[in-house]
Amino acid sequence: MSTTAPDAAGMDHGAEALRADTPFERATIGLGTSLLAVVAALGLGAVILAGSGENPLTAYGAILVGSFGDWFAIGETLARAAPLAVVGVGAAVALRAGVITIGAQGQLIAGSLGALCAGFVLQDAPAVAAVPLAAVAGALFGMAWVLIPALLRAHLNVNEILSTLLFNEFAFLLLAYLLNNPLKEPKAITPKSEPLPDSVVLGDLVASTRLHAGVLAVVVIVALFALWTRSTMGYRYDLFGENPRLAHSLGIGGRRVVLNSLLISGALAGLAGWLQAAGLLQRLFVDIAEEIGFFGLVVAMLGGARPLGILAAALLVGALQAGGLHMQATEGIPASLSDVIQALILLGFAVRYAPQIAAIGRRAVRSLTDTFGAAAGWGRARGGAGGEA
Amino acid sequence: MSTDAGPEVAFEARGVSRSFGATRALDTVDFDLRSGEIHALVGENGAGKTTLAKITAGALRPDSGTLRLFGEPYDPRRRSDGSAAGVAHVRQQLSLVRGLTVAQNIELGRPRALGGTGWRPWPRAFNARAARAEVERLAAELDLAVPADELVDDLPLAVRQQAEILISLAWGARLLILDEPSSALGPLETDALVALCLRLRDEGTPIIYISHRLPELARLADRLTVLRQGKVVTAGRDVHDADLRRIAELMIGDITLLDVERPALAPGEVRLDADGLRVAAEHGPGLRDVSLRVRAGEIVGVVGVAGNGQDELAGVLTGQLRPDAGTVCVDETDVTGSPAAAVGAGVALLPEDRTAGLAADFSLAENLIARRVADPQFARLGVRLTKAVQRHARALAERFDVRPPEPALRAGSLSGGNQQKLMAAREMERDPAVLVAAGPTKGLDPHAGRAIRDRCFEAAGRGGAVVIISADLDEVAELAQRVVVLSGGRVTDRFGVEEMTSARLGAVMAGLAWDPAGEGLE
């Protein structure tokens, strides 16, 4: 279609619009940027490694070997990717609804405590009942941990970033207290809990790896999330995140969306805690959450808050972490340098997927500006001060 | 008036033109501002007042024409050139930085020539005491109660405006442009503003005062220039001799009713019944006891200058905004303050701000099912039937001539006209009981405009009650059978479209009382 008239303010530019958005064009642009960004990141990392007196090639080789080199390495990668994917799905549900939660860290700790409590109660129960009940306990504890921030956000428009961050601190301090006092294993020198009873522990999938059966739950969760993105309810939540004023005008209540998406993200972070406690570590340590909560958000953003994207991003981060550890161990590269290299590679992928991330980032920013500034429109369109139908 | 011995000219524009795309916002405009006068610039929305103000301030460059400031050639390339030359433009959206005090604002952005920080490679300490003293000194000189140490956020709008004027003067303003300064002020605050302007004028600061409120202009302006569609209709007329009614008529221009082909509509029973609506708004007048009844097959135009309660009215009629008092019923169902009930009762909305009505990052298909996600046609067991959604989207997009009708396309990638058609397709897919359309053809090219207009007629023709809320009188003249004038949050006049004359509309919209028999004002 070509426009015959000269360019006017509201002229139809149908042809141009089509050209800029064909999948083919997107793919071509995508391929170029992807190679360039990742190669640039690896190159920059190589410069830093060489500058620190390390051989970049052996260092990168160690990352590869440590992440996919043998069954143990693959097991490590998958076991690390699993909780990241679960947290990532939770963060994605919230992000899609325009809510940024960084409380996964605390909710994960709460979830691991939930799994431990379930273990104490269900010591003698059959595993068929005890395992799922422990998972549910983890999810409920995670949900409970986000309840107060969620209510504050939905009803008083208290910024969820701040409140969930503070709740991370509470969770960490609570866990440290519990592991040093009532829950401490009597003979242990470092603070850690008793092992979880066998009834709730997830068995290994592959012998002599740390790959446990809980990884299967991840597949289910990502599949459910794929369904969520196509569901009526998921559509409403997305619409609220994308355009709160439009959602409000169609009678979608902002409060409910904000509250529920935070609760869902809390439940999933709690499940990740269950995976850590009942699957990977089989007891509670002070650093059980590592940085899974934060990297889960990275995974959600990097994956464009889409199911397959999250799966891929979780595998990438899991592989980088497993490989990074291997690099430290075998090549003697300091942990801090290993972290820098991991971050650089992630940054490269972030550049590669910039358009997908930007779309979800826009929602997040909208929610931010709204919390701090004057709300657009009626000021009631947002979840914060919002009129529920 | 002799040219040589005439009064000293502070600012002069000769033959200034400026276009945006195909729209000529200013067309060879001549304008002059004398030292020591307040020169009012009046005209409808879109007449070119703000464009001229921006050119004067340096924020826009004219396509052609010359400017002179205080006798010197004046060619500002950006806003900071204008302020360095002493031109201050106080806009409707005030530009004070929130989260800072007035004293901090006076320091921030002060022109470098006046000791401002500007850009320097090293930081400079903020002298809080000096800034505070300066605010207090100026406030005392101007007889204003502007507190130096309070956060801008905590100040009432009128005080913020005074603070902005005060800061302009501190930054060396020798010429002030006030753009619709009284639109959000109450009567007492307006009195204070008028007093301040007169005082500034008497102390030698000339002012370009943009407004459409003629009674207010009669109290403060010395001369007046009327713009209409980018052209000067009346240049530099002495306000004290002018017939304000005639001025109001000039502002509006001729209203042509005959050119439009409008279908014959036969109004039926009342479908939309809004009664006694009151809304207290933070800015602007809100709504003050507005009632509106629209019958099936009827198109009612709500006219008025933007900011007189239109946004609130659109919000209340569609259930999005809960009024402080009053009810909205659609087919005798109460939908007051409930968007869900309004959608359920068949209320459709074309919002003036298109960003409010479309999900730009969603595809066409996803946008088109926004009202019907849970419809069994599109979802089974709560999961979307992608094929059905795509098919429906393509058919609907073709029916409403959305180009290109590609279901997978991002809505934000469409042109303005097609976005509006997409929104119309979503809202009017099934005959709405009530259609509220705010400025529905604003900014559209003639073709898309006609398509949207036809949709509005169609909605009425199929028994819908249609409300057109618009500041564009031609749009209303083309569409509406009945006209309601909204001014200061009140309905100040109602009449059939055949009685819509420039004189009558100009008068009521400008806040004058309409008395067809009488000659005088008020």
Written description of the protein model:
The complex is a heterodimer of chains A (389) and B (522). With 389 residues, chain A is mostly helical. Helices cover 72% and strands 0% of the residues of chain A. Chain A is built from 15 helices and no strands. Chain B folds into four domains: 9-86 and 174-253, P-loop containing nucleotide triphosphate hydrolases (Rossmann fold, 3-Layer(aba) Sandwich); 100-172, no CATH class; 256-346 and 432-500, 3-Layer(aba) Sandwich (Rossmann fold), CATH 3.40.50; 359-430, no CATH class. Chain B has 16 helices and 22 strands. In chain B, strands 6-7-8-3-9-10 form a six-stranded mixed β-sheet, sandwiched between helices. In chain B, strands 16-19-20-13-21-22 form a six-stranded mixed β-sheet, with helices on both faces. In chain B, helix 8 packs across helix 16 (502-509). At the A-B interface, helix 1, helix 9, helix 10 and helix 15 of A face helix 10, strand 18, helix 13 and helix 14 of B.
Second rung of CATH, namely the architecture of chain A? Orthogonal Bundle
> Quaternary status of these chains?
heterodimer
Structurally, the number of domains of chain A stands at 1
Biggest protein-protein contact in the assembly: A-B, 43 and 56 residues
Catalogue the unreliable spans of chain A. Answer: 1-20, 371-389
Overall mean pLDDT score of chain B?
86
Q: How widely separated are the two ends of chain A?
A: 44 Å
Total of helices of chain B: 16
List the helices and strands and how they pair.
The complex is a heterodimer of chains A (389) and B (522).
Chain A: H1 14-21, H2 23-51, H3 56-68, H4 71-96, H5 104-121, H6 127-156, H7 160-180, H8 214-229, H9 232-242, H10 244-249, H11 254-281, H12 292-302, H13 307-331, H14 335-352, H15 354-372
Helix pairs in contact in A: 2-14, 3-4, 3-13, 4-8, 4-11, 4-12, 4-13, 5-6, 5-7, 5-11, 5-12, 6-7, 6-11, 8-13, 12-13, 13-14
Chain B: E1 9-20, E2 23-34, E3 38-42, H1 49-57, E4 64-69, E5 72-73, H2 79-84, E6 87-90, H3 102-107, H4 128-142, H5 157-170, E7 175-179, H6 187-202, E8 207-210, H7 214-220, E9 223-228, E10 231-238, H8 244-252, E11 270-279, E12 287-295, E13 299-303, H9 310-317, E14 325-330, E15 333-334, H10 339-344, E16 347-350, H11 364-368, E17 379-380, E18 383-384, H12 386-399, H13 416-428, E19 434-438, H14 446-461, E20 465-470, H15 473-479, E21 482-487, E22 490-496, H16 502-509
Parallel strand pairs in B: 3-8, 3-9, 6-7, 7-8, 13-20, 13-21, 16-19, 19-20
Antiparallel strand pairs in B: 1-2, 1-4, 4-5, 9-10, 11-12, 11-14, 14-15, 17-18, 21-22
Helix pairs in contact in B: 8-16, 13-14
